[in-house]
Amino acid sequence: MAQTTLHLRSETKYLERRTPLTPTTTKTLIDSGYVINVEKSTGRVFRDEEYKAAGANLVPEGTWPSAPKDHIIVGLKELPQDDAPLKHDHIQFGHCYKGQENWDGYLSRFARGGGVLYDIEFLTDPSGRRVAAFGYYAGFAGAAVALVAWAHQLTNPKTPLPSLIPSNYPSQSDLENAIKDALLKAIPLNASQPPRVIVIGALGRCGTGAVDCCLAAGVPASSILRWDMAETAPGGPFSEIAASDIFINCIYLSQPIPPFVTTESLSKSGRKLRVISDVSCDPGDPNNPVPLYHGYSTFIKPTLPVDLSGDGPDLTMISIDHLPSLVAREASEHFSSLLLPSLKALNRRDQEGVWVRAEKVFRDKVNELPKSN
């Protein structure tokens, strides 16, 4: 049997430092008989030399389009906007299966080029559960930014939160220390009380990460309100959110639900809420239960103002769609280890369940393309 070659491309999204293949998983795949080509990258959290030491072949950045057609292109985020047909099979988060903006244009590139999109979000086990997700570290990072934003509001009123550059936090412990420092300055300005945080979706991977971050930063467990499906079953809006200092939304949106908050619910007298971190980050979804914004924030501009009436403090929204880049090394190691068993089965992807299921989703979505595509 011919060896299967994986080509790890360099990410093009600004400040995206994560990778689905780490040097550790690269070595395991090479030991299992795969050939791994890794594009050189100065933005990736792992150094090129680490991949070379693991046995990978280093290739120039951006060379994946000219790779042989049978090479599988591995990446994390979607490709830059373009109209060029895609001839390769790709493993990535495509963000084009839920009616997102330009979903049809993106998906049609595969249809026209003969390639297949194995969307990582739709790599599932027989029960439908995702085999790999960044959920835990998305929640962790979302809580981290929220805590820093809350502290900044108190120590620097009316001043936007400055840029958060992921490379300033080489490790998770560095990030935790930065949060602790920020809270240490802010809590005395809050009547010496820690922030009251409500986490919705607290029992899932994402919510667990958010709660763990709050605890690691020194927020007492008694100040963390942990909600999940049982608490939200009656339907929102919920006054408990307005009464908290920070709201972290960690649900996986799979069906329409009543909104957790509205402009009206947060404009009532007595609101304490200062920061919302929408880790779920579905601004374009008409069923988004946090319908207060329409775009993304970024690490360069981490918060967006929310326009409200009433007597409450300024409210800011965090809607960064690649939060785990803030803890890129730990997040990548965790994610890649979860993805590894499926990657080891790529050489029989025409019969291995996880890949067969992902290709079926791709084919079904291609069939939904407008005829003009």
SSE topology:
Layout (H helix, E strand, L loop, with lengths): L4 E4 L14 H9 L3 E5 L8 H7 L2 E3 L12 E3 L15 E3 L10 H11 L3 E3 L15 H21 L16 H15 L10 E4 L4 H12 L7 E4 L1 H4 L6 H4 L3 E4 L13 H4 L8 E4 L25 E3 L8 E4 L9 H16 L9 H14 L7
Parallel strand pairs: 1-2, 1-4, 2-3, 4-5, 5-6, 7-8, 7-9, 9-10, 10-12
Antiparallel strand pairs: 11-12
What is this structure, in a nutshell?
This protein has 373 residues and is an alpha/beta fold. The chain has helices at residues 23-31, 48-54, 103-113, 135-155, 172-186, 205-216, 229-232, 239-242, 263-266, 328-343, 353-366, and strands at residues 5-8, 35-39, 57-59, 72-74, 90-92, 117-119, 197-200, 224-227, 246-249, 275-278, 304-306, 315-318.
Shape: globular
Largest sheet: 6 strands, parallel
Q: What is the typical, i.e. mean, pLDDT?
A: 95
Order of helices and strands: EHEHEEEHEHHEHEHHEHEEEHH
The total strand number stands at: 12
Structural class: alpha/beta
Distance between the termini: 36 Å
Q: Which percent range describes the beta-strand content? A: 5-15%
Unreliable spans are: none
Please give the order of strands in the largest beta sheet. 3-2-1-4-5-6
Rg of Cα set: 21 Å
Percent helix, as a range, is: 25-40%
Question: Helical segment tally?
Answer: 11
Structural features, described:
The structure is a single chain. With 373 residues, this protein is an alpha/beta fold. It is built from 11 helices and 12 strands. It has helices spanning 23-31, 48-54, 103-113, 135-155, 172-186, 205-216, 229-232, 239-242, 263-266, 328-343, 353-366, and strands at residues 5-8, 35-39, 57-59, 72-74, 90-92, 117-119, 197-200, 224-227, 246-249, 275-278, 304-306, 315-318. The strands form 2 sheets. A 6-stranded parallel sheet has the order 3-2-1-4-5-6. A 6-stranded mixed sheet has the order 8-7-9-10-12-11. Strand 1 (5-8), helix 1 (23-31) and strand 2 form a beta-alpha-beta unit.
